[in-house]
Specification:
Elements (H helix, E strand, L loop, with lengths): L2 E5 L4 H14 L5 H18 L4 E5 L4
Antiparallel strand pairs: 1-2
Helix pairs in contact: 1-2
């Protein structure tokens, strides 16, 4: 298993969104509100941070 950190690229957004979506499914939020919150944080982190990094395991975010 190879774990690497690299700058986040646009292709990572889908995988990151799916991971956040799965996490919210097990919370007390409704799916819609959970996705809105997740989208806000995802966009805020990726757009506002010049240092956004993605951890990959065997090449997968």
């Amino acid at each position: 298993m190879t774990v690497e950190l690299r700058n986040t690229i646009p292709q990572d957004y889908k995988a990151l969104s799916e991971a956040i979506d799965l996490e919210w499914k097990f919370s007390t939020y409704t799916k819609e509100s959970g996705l809105l919150i997740a989208e806000y944080y995802l966009v805020k982190c990726l757009n506002d941070a010049n240092h956004a990094v993605t951890a990959t395991i065997d090449g997968e975010p």
